[in-house]
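Exercise 3.2. Students should predict the tertiary structure of the chain below and write it as structure tokens, then compare their answer with the key that follows.

Predict this chain's 3D structure.
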Amino acid sequence: MSKNQEYSIECNINLHKRVFGIKFKNRATTCIREIKKFAQKVMGSANIRVDTELNRYIWSKGPRCSPIGIRVRLVKKRCVSENFDDWIIFISRVNNFKSVNTVKKK
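Answer key:
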């Protein structure tokens, strides 16, 4: 798949291994940071936006009890405006964690 295409994928992210050993009060913020780092690695762009529903889900049990795993959809889109021309990655939550098939769209 080319780096210059618009596409989306669905991924399972194991948050437990990414926040293991982190202080309890910093776990939710670390989860958000690790999701962004994962998206940057997979999609190849540093401009990342997190959906509010995903943010609320991670913070739903407080800063300490973050979810063990999460299924997210990563969408890479081209953003062209007057003074900005770059790729933007949108991260949103997928409710169905059990399905493992990766969906690729153009």
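Discussion points: DSSP finds three helices and four strands in the chain. The mean pLDDT is 87.
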